[in-house]
Specification:
34% of the residues lie in helices and 19% in strands. By secondary structure, the protein is an alpha/beta fold. The relative contact order is 0.09.
Length: 637
Protein backbone atom coordinates (compact mmCIF):
# COMPACT_ATOMS: atom_id res chain seq x y z
CA UNK A 1 0.00 0.00 0.00
CA UNK A 2 1.08 3.57 -0.71
CA UNK A 3 0.88 5.01 2.78
CA UNK A 4 3.71 7.53 2.94
CA UNK A 5 3.22 8.88 -0.59
CA UNK A 6 -0.38 9.90 0.13
CA UNK A 7 0.27 11.10 3.63
CA UNK A 8 -0.31 14.86 4.09
CA UNK A 9 2.83 17.00 4.22
CA UNK A 10 3.63 20.24 6.00
CA UNK A 11 6.15 22.76 4.61
CA UNK A 12 6.40 25.83 6.75
CA UNK A 13 2.77 26.89 7.08
CA UNK A 14 1.78 25.19 3.80
CA UNK A 15 -0.25 21.97 4.05
CA UNK A 16 -0.29 19.50 1.13
CA UNK A 17 -2.76 16.69 0.51
CA UNK A 18 0.05 14.28 -0.41
CA UNK A 19 3.80 14.16 -1.00
CA UNK A 20 3.83 14.25 -4.81
CA UNK A 21 5.27 17.45 -6.22
CA UNK A 22 5.17 18.57 -9.84
CA UNK A 23 8.50 20.37 -10.29
CA UNK A 24 8.92 23.44 -12.50
CA UNK A 25 9.30 22.56 -16.20
CA UNK A 26 9.21 25.19 -18.94
CA UNK A 27 6.69 24.13 -21.60
CA UNK A 28 6.38 27.33 -23.67
CA UNK A 29 2.59 27.39 -23.62
CA UNK A 30 2.54 31.07 -22.61
CA UNK A 31 1.62 34.03 -24.78
CA UNK A 32 4.30 35.85 -26.77
CA UNK A 33 4.40 38.67 -24.22
CA UNK A 34 5.08 36.25 -21.35
CA UNK A 35 1.55 36.31 -19.98
CA UNK A 36 -0.48 33.27 -18.99
CA UNK A 37 -2.42 31.74 -21.88
CA UNK A 38 -5.55 29.60 -21.80
CA UNK A 39 -3.38 26.63 -22.75
CA UNK A 40 -1.11 27.33 -19.78
CA UNK A 41 -4.03 27.32 -17.37
CA UNK A 42 -5.54 24.15 -18.85
CA UNK A 43 -2.17 22.37 -18.69
CA UNK A 44 -1.71 23.03 -14.98
CA UNK A 45 -5.37 22.47 -14.15
CA UNK A 46 -5.22 19.00 -15.69
CA UNK A 47 -2.30 18.06 -13.40
CA UNK A 48 -4.12 19.48 -10.38
CA UNK A 49 -7.19 17.45 -11.35
CA UNK A 50 -4.96 14.39 -11.56
CA UNK A 51 -4.31 14.51 -7.83
CA UNK A 52 -0.83 15.98 -7.38
CA UNK A 53 -0.19 17.62 -4.01
CA UNK A 54 1.83 20.63 -5.10
CA UNK A 55 2.40 22.17 -8.52
CA UNK A 56 5.35 24.47 -9.04
CA UNK A 57 4.76 26.63 -12.09
CA UNK A 58 7.68 26.73 -14.50
CA UNK A 59 10.66 29.10 -14.33
CA UNK A 60 9.11 32.57 -14.55
CA UNK A 61 11.30 35.56 -15.40
CA UNK A 62 11.81 38.27 -12.77
CA UNK A 63 13.28 40.68 -15.38
CA UNK A 64 12.80 41.16 -19.11
CA UNK A 65 16.38 40.06 -19.82
CA UNK A 66 15.97 37.01 -17.60
CA UNK A 67 13.99 35.00 -20.17
CA UNK A 68 15.55 32.03 -21.96
CA UNK A 69 12.84 31.56 -24.60
CA UNK A 70 10.27 33.76 -26.36
CA UNK A 71 7.24 32.15 -24.70
CA UNK A 72 8.57 31.89 -21.15
CA UNK A 73 6.26 33.26 -18.47
CA UNK A 74 7.04 36.61 -16.85
CA UNK A 75 6.38 38.16 -13.44
CA UNK A 76 8.51 41.30 -13.76
CA UNK A 77 5.52 43.69 -13.97
CA UNK A 78 2.20 44.09 -12.19
CA UNK A 79 0.51 43.62 -15.57
CA UNK A 80 1.09 39.86 -15.27
CA UNK A 81 -0.64 39.44 -11.90
CA UNK A 82 -4.13 39.06 -13.33
CA UNK A 83 -3.21 36.17 -15.63
CA UNK A 84 -1.25 34.45 -12.89
CA UNK A 85 -4.18 34.86 -10.49
CA UNK A 86 -6.45 33.10 -12.97
CA UNK A 87 -3.91 30.26 -13.12
CA UNK A 88 -3.79 29.81 -9.35
CA UNK A 89 -7.57 29.84 -9.28
CA UNK A 90 -7.73 26.94 -11.73
CA UNK A 91 -5.22 24.88 -9.75
CA UNK A 92 -6.93 25.56 -6.42
CA UNK A 93 -10.24 24.55 -7.96
CA UNK A 94 -9.00 20.94 -8.02
CA UNK A 95 -7.51 20.84 -4.53
CA UNK A 96 -3.80 21.18 -5.28
CA UNK A 97 -1.51 23.82 -3.86
CA UNK A 98 0.55 25.92 -6.26
CA UNK A 99 3.95 27.55 -6.12
CA UNK A 100 5.83 29.49 -8.78
CA UNK A 101 9.53 29.37 -9.57
CA UNK A 102 11.18 32.79 -9.76
CA UNK A 103 14.06 32.75 -12.17
CA UNK A 104 16.65 34.63 -14.16
CA UNK A 105 18.44 32.64 -16.85
CA UNK A 106 21.73 34.56 -16.60
CA UNK A 107 24.28 33.61 -19.23
CA UNK A 108 21.83 31.08 -20.71
CA UNK A 109 19.82 33.93 -22.19
CA UNK A 110 20.03 35.13 -25.77
CA UNK A 111 19.93 38.66 -27.17
CA UNK A 112 17.70 37.57 -30.06
CA UNK A 113 14.90 36.92 -27.54
CA UNK A 114 15.47 39.71 -25.03
CA UNK A 115 17.16 42.37 -27.16
CA UNK A 116 19.94 42.55 -24.57
CA UNK A 117 23.30 40.89 -24.05
CA UNK A 118 23.02 38.11 -21.46
CA UNK A 119 24.35 38.92 -18.00
CA UNK A 120 26.25 36.78 -15.51
CA UNK A 121 28.55 37.01 -12.46
CA UNK A 122 31.54 36.81 -14.83
CA UNK A 123 31.89 37.11 -18.64
CA UNK A 124 32.14 33.36 -19.21
CA UNK A 125 29.79 31.85 -21.82
CA UNK A 126 28.33 28.39 -21.54
CA UNK A 127 29.04 25.98 -24.40
CA UNK A 128 27.51 27.44 -27.55
CA UNK A 129 26.17 30.55 -25.82
CA UNK A 130 26.88 34.26 -26.14
CA UNK A 131 29.56 35.94 -24.06
CA UNK A 132 27.64 37.48 -21.15
CA UNK A 133 28.23 40.89 -19.67
CA UNK A 134 29.51 40.92 -16.08
CA UNK A 135 27.00 42.38 -13.65
CA UNK A 136 28.03 45.48 -11.71
CA UNK A 137 27.48 45.74 -7.95
CA UNK A 138 24.59 48.14 -8.56
CA UNK A 139 22.96 45.69 -11.02
CA UNK A 140 23.34 42.83 -8.53
CA UNK A 141 21.63 44.88 -5.84
CA UNK A 142 18.86 45.78 -8.27
CA UNK A 143 18.41 42.13 -9.22
CA UNK A 144 17.98 41.23 -5.55
CA UNK A 145 15.10 43.70 -5.45
CA UNK A 146 13.63 42.22 -8.64
CA UNK A 147 13.38 38.78 -7.03
CA UNK A 148 11.73 40.26 -3.94
CA UNK A 149 9.27 42.31 -6.01
CA UNK A 150 8.38 39.23 -8.07
CA UNK A 151 7.70 37.30 -4.86
CA UNK A 152 5.26 39.98 -3.72
CA UNK A 153 3.46 39.75 -7.08
CA UNK A 154 3.28 35.97 -6.73
CA UNK A 155 1.72 36.31 -3.28
CA UNK A 156 -0.81 38.82 -4.62
CA UNK A 157 -1.62 36.46 -7.51
CA UNK A 158 -2.70 33.79 -5.04
CA UNK A 159 0.28 31.46 -5.06
CA UNK A 160 0.70 29.40 -1.90
CA UNK A 161 4.49 29.58 -2.08
CA UNK A 162 7.41 30.59 -4.26
CA UNK A 163 10.51 28.73 -5.31
CA UNK A 164 13.77 30.57 -5.91
CA UNK A 165 15.58 28.99 -8.85
CA UNK A 166 19.14 28.34 -7.73
CA UNK A 167 19.89 25.36 -9.99
CA UNK A 168 20.71 24.26 -13.54
CA UNK A 169 23.05 27.08 -14.52
CA UNK A 170 20.56 29.90 -13.99
CA UNK A 171 21.95 33.10 -12.53
CA UNK A 172 21.80 32.21 -8.83
CA UNK A 173 23.59 28.92 -9.42
CA UNK A 174 26.12 30.82 -11.54
CA UNK A 175 27.00 32.92 -8.50
CA UNK A 176 27.28 29.77 -6.38
CA UNK A 177 29.50 27.87 -8.82
CA UNK A 178 33.30 28.27 -8.61
CA UNK A 179 33.40 27.18 -12.25
CA UNK A 180 31.48 30.25 -13.41
CA UNK A 181 31.88 32.87 -10.70
CA UNK A 182 35.36 34.40 -11.02
CA UNK A 183 34.57 37.69 -9.28
CA UNK A 184 37.06 39.21 -6.87
CA UNK A 185 34.60 41.47 -5.02
CA UNK A 186 32.23 40.58 -2.18
CA UNK A 187 30.10 38.46 -4.53
CA UNK A 188 32.86 36.09 -5.55
CA UNK A 189 35.89 34.18 -4.35
CA UNK A 190 35.39 31.77 -1.44
CA UNK A 191 32.11 30.16 -0.43
CA UNK A 192 31.14 33.12 1.71
CA UNK A 193 31.45 35.43 -1.30
CA UNK A 194 29.75 33.11 -3.76
CA UNK A 195 26.76 32.62 -1.46
CA UNK A 196 26.33 36.35 -0.79
CA UNK A 197 23.98 37.01 -3.72
CA UNK A 198 21.73 33.95 -3.17
CA UNK A 199 21.47 34.61 0.55
CA UNK A 200 20.66 38.27 0.01
CA UNK A 201 17.95 37.26 -2.45
CA UNK A 202 16.47 34.89 0.13
CA UNK A 203 16.64 37.39 3.01
CA UNK A 204 15.23 40.28 0.98
CA UNK A 205 12.46 38.07 -0.36
CA UNK A 206 11.61 36.84 3.12
CA UNK A 207 11.33 40.41 4.36
CA UNK A 208 9.05 41.27 1.44
CA UNK A 209 6.59 38.39 1.78
CA UNK A 210 6.66 38.02 5.56
CA UNK A 211 7.47 35.17 7.91
CA UNK A 212 4.35 33.13 7.19
CA UNK A 213 4.73 32.73 3.42
CA UNK A 214 6.46 29.50 2.27
CA UNK A 215 9.70 29.79 0.29
CA UNK A 216 11.42 26.91 -1.51
CA UNK A 217 14.92 26.94 -2.97
CA UNK A 218 15.96 24.69 -5.85
CA UNK A 219 19.63 23.75 -6.00
CA UNK A 220 21.91 21.60 -8.10
CA UNK A 221 23.53 19.63 -5.30
CA UNK A 222 26.21 18.47 -7.73
CA UNK A 223 26.92 20.11 -11.07
CA UNK A 224 28.87 17.09 -12.34
CA UNK A 225 31.43 19.40 -13.95
CA UNK A 226 35.15 20.01 -13.40
CA UNK A 227 35.51 22.81 -10.81
CA UNK A 228 31.73 22.88 -10.37
CA UNK A 229 29.63 22.58 -7.25
CA UNK A 230 29.72 19.27 -5.36
CA UNK A 231 28.11 17.96 -2.20
CA UNK A 232 31.11 19.13 -0.20
CA UNK A 233 29.88 22.69 -0.66
CA UNK A 234 26.15 22.27 -1.28
CA UNK A 235 25.55 20.58 2.07
CA UNK A 236 27.04 23.70 3.67
CA UNK A 237 25.01 25.95 1.37
CA UNK A 238 21.83 24.10 2.34
CA UNK A 239 22.44 24.89 6.00
CA UNK A 240 23.06 28.53 5.14
CA UNK A 241 19.80 28.67 3.17
CA UNK A 242 17.88 27.20 6.07
CA UNK A 243 19.36 29.86 8.34
CA UNK A 244 18.37 32.58 5.89
CA UNK A 245 14.69 31.60 6.01
CA UNK A 246 14.13 28.88 3.39
CA UNK A 247 11.33 26.43 4.29
CA UNK A 248 12.17 23.59 1.89
CA UNK A 249 15.06 22.58 -0.38
CA UNK A 250 14.27 21.11 -3.79
CA UNK A 251 17.33 19.02 -4.70
CA UNK A 252 18.26 18.57 -8.36
CA UNK A 253 21.58 18.37 -10.21
CA UNK A 254 23.53 19.42 -13.29
CA UNK A 255 23.50 22.39 -15.64
CA UNK A 256 23.12 22.84 -19.38
CA UNK A 257 26.75 21.74 -19.62
CA UNK A 258 26.04 18.48 -17.80
CA UNK A 259 22.66 17.93 -19.36
CA UNK A 260 22.38 14.20 -18.64
CA UNK A 261 22.25 14.96 -14.91
CA UNK A 262 19.85 17.87 -15.38
CA UNK A 263 17.39 16.03 -17.65
CA UNK A 264 18.23 12.39 -17.13
CA UNK A 265 18.15 10.01 -20.11
CA UNK A 266 16.85 6.45 -20.07
CA UNK A 267 20.43 5.21 -19.61
CA UNK A 268 20.38 6.49 -16.01
CA UNK A 269 18.42 4.42 -13.48
CA UNK A 270 15.23 5.63 -11.81
CA UNK A 271 16.04 7.57 -8.66
CA UNK A 272 19.51 8.43 -9.91
CA UNK A 273 19.69 11.70 -7.92
CA UNK A 274 18.20 10.46 -4.66
CA UNK A 275 21.62 10.16 -2.99
CA UNK A 276 22.00 13.94 -3.33
CA UNK A 277 18.71 14.71 -1.59
CA UNK A 278 19.53 12.15 1.09
CA UNK A 279 22.85 13.87 1.79
CA UNK A 280 21.17 17.28 2.04
CA UNK A 281 18.44 15.88 4.29
CA UNK A 282 21.07 14.67 6.77
CA UNK A 283 22.29 18.22 7.45
CA UNK A 284 19.05 20.26 7.48
CA UNK A 285 15.87 20.05 9.53
CA UNK A 286 13.54 21.52 6.90
CA UNK A 287 11.79 19.27 4.32
CA UNK A 288 13.72 18.07 1.28
CA UNK A 289 12.36 17.21 -2.19
CA UNK A 290 14.07 14.64 -4.39
CA UNK A 291 13.80 14.22 -8.15
CA UNK A 292 15.38 12.20 -10.97
CA UNK A 293 13.36 9.76 -13.06
CA UNK A 294 10.94 8.85 -10.28
CA UNK A 295 7.77 7.93 -12.13
CA UNK A 296 7.09 4.66 -10.33
CA UNK A 297 4.84 5.23 -7.31
CA UNK A 298 6.20 2.12 -5.60
CA UNK A 299 9.74 3.49 -5.86
CA UNK A 300 8.52 6.81 -4.52
CA UNK A 301 6.90 5.08 -1.54
CA UNK A 302 10.09 3.15 -0.83
CA UNK A 303 12.23 6.31 -0.86
CA UNK A 304 9.92 8.03 1.59
CA UNK A 305 9.86 5.02 3.92
CA UNK A 306 13.66 4.91 3.87
CA UNK A 307 13.78 8.55 4.87
CA UNK A 308 15.73 9.57 1.76
CA UNK A 309 13.48 12.61 1.26
CA UNK A 310 10.26 14.17 2.51
CA UNK A 311 8.57 14.77 -0.85
CA UNK A 312 8.90 13.27 -4.32
CA UNK A 313 9.06 15.36 -7.48
CA UNK A 314 7.62 13.71 -10.59
CA UNK A 315 8.24 15.89 -13.61
CA UNK A 316 8.15 14.24 -17.00
CA UNK A 317 6.06 11.43 -15.48
CA UNK A 318 3.25 13.97 -14.96
CA UNK A 319 3.71 15.29 -18.48
CA UNK A 320 3.20 11.74 -19.74
CA UNK A 321 0.24 11.04 -17.45
CA UNK A 322 -1.35 13.86 -15.43
CA UNK A 323 -3.59 11.31 -13.69
CA UNK A 324 -0.66 9.37 -12.24
CA UNK A 325 -1.39 10.35 -8.60
CA UNK A 326 -5.06 9.33 -8.71
CA UNK A 327 -4.27 6.07 -10.48
CA UNK A 328 -1.50 5.27 -8.01
CA UNK A 329 -3.66 6.03 -4.98
CA UNK A 330 -6.28 3.58 -6.24
CA UNK A 331 -3.65 0.93 -7.04
CA UNK A 332 -4.29 1.15 -10.81
CA UNK A 333 -0.59 0.96 -11.62
CA UNK A 334 -1.03 -0.76 -15.00
CA UNK A 335 -3.12 2.19 -16.18
CA UNK A 336 -0.31 4.71 -15.69
CA UNK A 337 1.02 5.88 -19.05
CA UNK A 338 4.81 5.70 -18.65
CA UNK A 339 7.41 8.36 -19.40
CA UNK A 340 10.07 6.87 -21.67
CA UNK A 341 12.81 9.29 -20.56
CA UNK A 342 13.38 9.88 -24.29
CA UNK A 343 13.86 13.63 -23.68
CA UNK A 344 12.00 14.59 -26.84
CA UNK A 345 10.12 17.12 -24.70
CA UNK A 346 13.39 18.80 -23.80
CA UNK A 347 14.57 18.81 -27.41
CA UNK A 348 11.54 20.98 -28.16
CA UNK A 349 12.89 23.51 -25.65
CA UNK A 350 16.15 23.64 -27.58
CA UNK A 351 14.06 24.58 -30.59
CA UNK A 352 12.25 27.24 -28.51
CA UNK A 353 9.01 25.51 -29.41
CA UNK A 354 5.99 24.30 -27.47
CA UNK A 355 6.79 21.11 -25.58
CA UNK A 356 5.24 17.91 -26.87
CA UNK A 357 5.31 14.35 -25.54
CA UNK A 358 5.82 11.10 -27.46
CA UNK A 359 3.31 9.13 -25.41
CA UNK A 360 0.79 11.86 -24.52
CA UNK A 361 -0.74 13.42 -27.61
CA UNK A 362 -3.07 15.58 -25.53
CA UNK A 363 -0.20 17.58 -23.99
CA UNK A 364 -0.84 21.24 -24.76
CA UNK A 365 -4.36 20.34 -25.88
CA UNK A 366 -5.87 20.04 -22.42
CA UNK A 367 -8.57 22.59 -23.26
CA UNK A 368 -10.11 19.89 -25.47
CA UNK A 369 -10.32 17.40 -22.60
CA UNK A 370 -12.09 15.29 -21.58
CA UNK A 371 -12.25 13.37 -24.82
CA UNK A 372 -15.80 13.80 -26.18
CA UNK A 373 -18.09 10.77 -26.61
CA UNK A 374 -18.95 9.72 -30.14
CA UNK A 375 -22.18 11.08 -31.61
CA UNK A 376 -22.97 7.63 -33.01
CA UNK A 377 -21.52 4.33 -31.83
CA UNK A 378 -19.70 2.58 -34.66
CA UNK A 379 -18.02 -0.76 -35.18
CA UNK A 380 -14.38 0.09 -35.73
CA UNK A 381 -11.86 -2.37 -37.15
CA UNK A 382 -8.22 -1.56 -36.37
CA UNK A 383 -5.68 -3.53 -38.39
CA UNK A 384 -2.28 -3.49 -36.70
CA UNK A 385 -1.30 -3.61 -33.04
CA UNK A 386 1.63 -1.22 -33.13
CA UNK A 387 1.63 2.21 -31.46
CA UNK A 388 -0.56 3.88 -34.10
CA UNK A 389 -3.22 1.18 -34.10
CA UNK A 390 -3.21 0.81 -30.33
CA UNK A 391 -3.66 4.53 -29.71
CA UNK A 392 -6.41 4.77 -32.33
CA UNK A 393 -8.17 1.81 -30.71
CA UNK A 394 -7.77 3.31 -27.24
CA UNK A 395 -9.24 6.69 -28.15
CA UNK A 396 -12.04 5.19 -30.24
CA UNK A 397 -13.00 2.87 -27.37
CA UNK A 398 -12.86 5.74 -24.86
CA UNK A 399 -15.36 7.56 -27.03
CA UNK A 400 -17.75 4.61 -26.88
CA UNK A 401 -17.12 2.84 -30.18
CA UNK A 402 -17.10 -0.94 -30.49
CA UNK A 403 -13.48 -1.67 -31.41
CA UNK A 404 -11.94 -4.84 -32.82
CA UNK A 405 -8.16 -4.96 -33.27
CA UNK A 406 -6.09 -7.47 -35.23
CA UNK A 407 -2.31 -7.98 -34.97
CA UNK A 408 -0.55 -10.50 -37.21
CA UNK A 409 2.24 -11.17 -34.69
CA UNK A 410 1.59 -13.24 -31.58
CA UNK A 411 1.94 -10.18 -29.32
CA UNK A 412 0.92 -6.55 -29.34
CA UNK A 413 3.45 -3.77 -29.76
CA UNK A 414 4.64 -3.77 -33.35
CA UNK A 415 7.64 -1.48 -33.66
CA UNK A 416 7.49 -0.82 -29.90
CA UNK A 417 8.67 -4.37 -29.30
CA UNK A 418 11.73 -3.84 -31.50
CA UNK A 419 12.37 -0.35 -30.15
CA UNK A 420 12.57 -1.74 -26.61
CA UNK A 421 15.40 -4.18 -27.42
CA UNK A 422 18.38 -1.79 -27.79
CA UNK A 423 20.25 -0.85 -24.66
CA UNK A 424 18.67 1.78 -22.41
CA UNK A 425 15.34 1.59 -24.26
CA UNK A 426 13.85 -1.32 -22.34
CA UNK A 427 11.45 1.14 -20.70
CA UNK A 428 9.51 1.21 -23.96
CA UNK A 429 8.18 -2.24 -23.09
CA UNK A 430 6.21 -0.56 -20.28
CA UNK A 431 4.35 1.43 -22.93
CA UNK A 432 3.31 -1.81 -24.65
CA UNK A 433 2.06 -3.11 -21.29
CA UNK A 434 0.10 0.12 -20.81
CA UNK A 435 -1.61 -0.27 -24.17
CA UNK A 436 -2.39 -3.95 -23.51
CA UNK A 437 -4.00 -3.06 -20.18
CA UNK A 438 -6.00 -0.31 -21.86
CA UNK A 439 -7.33 -2.72 -24.49
CA UNK A 440 -8.56 -5.03 -21.73
CA UNK A 441 -10.01 -2.25 -19.57
CA UNK A 442 -11.86 -0.60 -22.46
CA UNK A 443 -13.27 -3.83 -23.84
CA UNK A 444 -11.38 -3.81 -27.15
CA UNK A 445 -11.69 -7.20 -28.84
CA UNK A 446 -8.08 -8.16 -29.59
CA UNK A 447 -6.97 -10.87 -32.03
CA UNK A 448 -3.23 -11.65 -32.13
CA UNK A 449 -1.47 -14.00 -34.47
CA UNK A 450 -4.03 -13.30 -37.19
CA UNK A 451 -3.22 -11.46 -40.41
CA UNK A 452 -6.16 -9.56 -41.84
CA UNK A 453 -7.15 -9.95 -45.47
CA UNK A 454 -9.70 -7.98 -47.44
CA UNK A 455 -12.10 -10.93 -47.08
CA UNK A 456 -11.92 -10.73 -43.28
CA UNK A 457 -12.73 -7.03 -43.49
CA UNK A 458 -15.83 -7.71 -45.61
CA UNK A 459 -16.96 -10.42 -43.18
CA UNK A 460 -16.49 -8.14 -40.17
CA UNK A 461 -18.71 -5.45 -41.74
CA UNK A 462 -17.15 -2.50 -39.89
CA UNK A 463 -18.43 1.08 -40.06
CA UNK A 464 -14.85 2.38 -40.04
CA UNK A 465 -11.46 0.81 -40.69
CA UNK A 466 -8.08 1.97 -39.41
CA UNK A 467 -5.15 0.47 -41.29
CA UNK A 468 -1.97 0.59 -39.21
CA UNK A 469 -0.04 -2.27 -40.74
CA UNK A 470 3.36 -0.65 -40.24
CA UNK A 471 6.30 -0.88 -42.57
CA UNK A 472 8.46 -3.47 -44.24
CA UNK A 473 12.25 -3.37 -44.60
CA UNK A 474 13.80 -2.19 -47.85
CA UNK A 475 16.09 -4.80 -49.40
CA UNK A 476 18.85 -2.96 -51.29
CA UNK A 477 19.90 -3.96 -54.77
CA UNK A 478 23.30 -5.35 -53.86
CA UNK A 479 24.94 -8.41 -55.41
CA UNK A 480 24.83 -11.29 -52.94
CA UNK A 481 22.09 -9.79 -50.79
CA UNK A 482 20.25 -13.12 -50.88
CA UNK A 483 23.11 -15.03 -49.21
CA UNK A 484 22.48 -17.02 -46.03
CA UNK A 485 24.83 -14.83 -43.96
CA UNK A 486 22.58 -11.80 -44.56
CA UNK A 487 19.91 -10.84 -42.01
CA UNK A 488 17.58 -7.93 -41.42
CA UNK A 489 18.21 -5.68 -38.42
CA UNK A 490 14.57 -6.14 -37.37
CA UNK A 491 15.07 -9.93 -37.27
CA UNK A 492 18.17 -9.53 -35.10
CA UNK A 493 16.35 -7.25 -32.66
CA UNK A 494 13.30 -9.54 -32.60
CA UNK A 495 15.51 -12.53 -31.80
CA UNK A 496 14.51 -14.35 -34.98
CA UNK A 497 18.12 -14.40 -36.22
CA UNK A 498 21.50 -14.46 -34.48
CA UNK A 499 24.55 -12.42 -35.45
CA UNK A 500 28.05 -13.87 -35.67
CA UNK A 501 31.05 -12.74 -33.67
CA UNK A 502 32.04 -10.28 -36.40
CA UNK A 503 29.27 -8.29 -38.04
CA UNK A 504 28.87 -5.65 -40.72
CA UNK A 505 25.76 -3.48 -40.55
CA UNK A 506 24.82 -1.87 -43.84
CA UNK A 507 23.04 1.37 -42.98
CA UNK A 508 23.97 3.87 -40.29
CA UNK A 509 20.63 5.39 -39.43
CA UNK A 510 19.05 5.04 -35.99
CA UNK A 511 18.13 1.38 -36.42
CA UNK A 512 21.59 0.48 -37.73
CA UNK A 513 23.39 2.34 -34.95
CA UNK A 514 21.15 0.98 -32.19
CA UNK A 515 21.60 -2.54 -33.53
CA UNK A 516 25.36 -1.96 -33.51
CA UNK A 517 25.18 -0.75 -29.92
CA UNK A 518 23.11 -3.78 -28.95
CA UNK A 519 25.54 -6.25 -30.54
CA UNK A 520 28.72 -4.49 -29.41
CA UNK A 521 27.50 -4.61 -25.81
CA UNK A 522 27.32 -8.41 -26.24
CA UNK A 523 31.01 -8.43 -27.10
CA UNK A 524 30.65 -8.73 -30.86
CA UNK A 525 32.98 -6.90 -33.24
CA UNK A 526 30.78 -4.55 -35.26
CA UNK A 527 31.34 -2.38 -38.33
CA UNK A 528 28.82 0.11 -39.71
CA UNK A 529 28.89 0.99 -43.39
CA UNK A 530 26.96 4.14 -44.33
CA UNK A 531 26.58 5.71 -47.77
CA UNK A 532 26.11 9.23 -46.33
CA UNK A 533 28.78 11.37 -44.69
CA UNK A 534 27.54 10.78 -41.13
CA UNK A 535 25.55 8.30 -39.07
CA UNK A 536 22.41 8.55 -36.92
CA UNK A 537 21.38 11.78 -38.62
CA UNK A 538 17.72 10.78 -38.26
CA UNK A 539 17.97 11.15 -34.48
CA UNK A 540 17.61 14.17 -32.22
CA UNK A 541 20.82 15.41 -30.56
CA UNK A 542 19.90 14.35 -27.03
CA UNK A 543 19.59 10.71 -28.10
CA UNK A 544 22.24 10.77 -30.84
CA UNK A 545 25.18 12.13 -28.85
CA UNK A 546 25.22 9.49 -26.08
CA UNK A 547 24.61 6.72 -28.63
CA UNK A 548 27.59 7.75 -30.73
CA UNK A 549 29.68 7.99 -27.56
CA UNK A 550 28.80 4.40 -26.67
CA UNK A 551 29.65 3.21 -30.18
CA UNK A 552 33.09 4.78 -29.85
CA UNK A 553 33.64 3.33 -26.39
CA UNK A 554 32.63 -0.15 -27.58
CA UNK A 555 34.99 -0.04 -30.52
CA UNK A 556 32.41 0.00 -33.31
CA UNK A 557 34.10 0.81 -36.62
CA UNK A 558 32.22 3.31 -38.78
CA UNK A 559 32.77 3.80 -42.50
CA UNK A 560 30.93 6.80 -43.96
CA UNK A 561 30.70 7.88 -47.62
CA UNK A 562 30.96 4.18 -48.36
CA UNK A 563 28.84 2.17 -50.78
CA UNK A 564 28.53 -1.61 -50.54
CA UNK A 565 29.03 -3.14 -53.98
CA UNK A 566 28.84 -6.85 -53.21
CA UNK A 567 28.19 -9.25 -50.33
CA UNK A 568 30.18 -12.47 -50.17
CA UNK A 569 30.44 -15.34 -47.69
CA UNK A 570 33.42 -13.59 -46.09
CA UNK A 571 32.07 -10.03 -45.87
CA UNK A 572 31.54 -7.15 -48.29
CA UNK A 573 33.26 -5.26 -51.06
CA UNK A 574 32.69 -1.54 -50.73
CA UNK A 575 33.61 1.62 -52.60
CA UNK A 576 35.21 4.62 -50.87
CA UNK A 577 36.40 7.56 -52.96
CA UNK A 578 36.40 5.39 -56.10
CA UNK A 579 38.53 2.77 -54.31
CA UNK A 580 37.30 -0.75 -53.60
CA UNK A 581 37.92 -2.05 -50.08
CA UNK A 582 37.25 -5.46 -48.57
CA UNK A 583 35.65 -5.77 -45.12
CA UNK A 584 35.47 -9.21 -43.51
CA UNK A 585 32.66 -10.42 -41.25
CA UNK A 586 30.70 -13.56 -40.40
CA UNK A 587 27.33 -11.80 -40.54
CA UNK A 588 25.88 -9.04 -42.69
CA UNK A 589 22.92 -7.10 -41.30
CA UNK A 590 20.69 -4.86 -43.38
CA UNK A 591 19.44 -1.62 -41.82
CA UNK A 592 18.74 0.16 -45.07
CA UNK A 593 15.42 1.75 -44.29
CA UNK A 594 11.80 0.77 -44.66
CA UNK A 595 8.75 1.44 -46.78
CA UNK A 596 5.07 1.55 -45.98
CA UNK A 597 3.16 -1.71 -45.90
CA UNK A 598 0.16 -0.27 -47.70
CA UNK A 599 -1.08 -3.06 -49.95
CA UNK A 600 -4.13 -3.88 -47.84
CA UNK A 601 -5.03 -0.19 -47.59
CA UNK A 602 -5.02 0.03 -51.40
CA UNK A 603 -7.35 -2.95 -51.65
CA UNK A 604 -9.79 -1.43 -49.18
CA UNK A 605 -9.73 2.13 -50.47
CA UNK A 606 -12.39 1.55 -53.12
CA UNK A 607 -14.80 -0.32 -50.87
CA UNK A 608 -14.58 1.26 -47.40
CA UNK A 609 -16.23 4.65 -47.00
CA UNK A 610 -14.55 5.57 -43.70
CA UNK A 611 -10.95 4.43 -44.05
CA UNK A 612 -7.90 5.80 -42.21
CA UNK A 613 -4.30 4.91 -43.01
CA UNK A 614 -1.93 5.87 -40.21
CA UNK A 615 1.53 5.35 -38.73
CA UNK A 616 4.31 3.71 -40.69
CA UNK A 617 1.70 2.27 -43.00
CA UNK A 618 1.18 5.81 -44.30
CA UNK A 619 4.86 6.74 -44.18
CA UNK A 620 7.72 5.27 -42.10
CA UNK A 621 8.50 7.69 -39.27
CA UNK A 622 8.84 7.71 -35.48
CA UNK A 623 6.80 6.41 -32.54
CA UNK A 624 5.81 10.02 -31.84
CA UNK A 625 4.12 10.32 -35.24
CA UNK A 626 2.39 6.96 -34.86
CA UNK A 627 0.85 7.72 -31.47
CA UNK A 628 -0.16 11.26 -32.36
CA UNK A 629 -1.78 10.13 -35.61
CA UNK A 630 -3.58 7.35 -33.77
CA UNK A 631 -4.88 9.89 -31.26
CA UNK A 632 -6.20 12.22 -33.95
CA UNK A 633 -7.86 9.43 -35.92
CA UNK A 634 -9.48 8.10 -32.76
CA UNK A 635 -11.07 11.53 -32.32
CA UNK A 636 -12.29 11.70 -35.93
CA UNK A 637 -14.12 8.39 -36.12
Amino acid sequence: MLIKLFEPAQIGELSLRNRIVMPPMVVNFGNADGSVSEDTKAYYAERAKGGVGLITVEATAVTTNGRSSPFQLRIDKDDFIGGLRSLTGEVHRYGAKVSIQLAHCGRQGASKYTGEQPVAPSPIPYAGGEIPRELSIHEIEDLIEKFAEAAVRAKEAGFDAIEIHGAHGYIISEFLSPRVNKRSDRYGGNLSGRTAFPLEVVKRTRTSVGDHFTIFFRMSADEYLPDGLTLNETTVIALMLQGAGIDCIDVSAGTMESLDMFVQPSSLPPGCLVHLASAIKKVVTIPVITVGRIGDPLLAESLLRQGKADLIAMGRALIADPELPKKAEKGRFDEIRPCLACRSCFERLFQKARVTCVVNASLGQERNLPIPPARRRKKVLVIGGGPAGLEAARIAALRGHEVVLYEKEDRLGGQLRLASVPLYKQGISSLTKFFASQMARLGVEVHVGEEVTADIVWETKPDAVVVATGNIPIIPDIRGVERSNVSLAVDILAGRKMAGGTTIIIGGGQIGCETADFLAAMGKKVTIVEILNDVAIDMGPLARIPLLKRLRERGVNIHTNTTVEEISERGVLAKVDAKIISLDAESIILATGSKSNGELAKQLAKEIGELYVIGDCAEPRKVYDAIHEGFQVGLKI
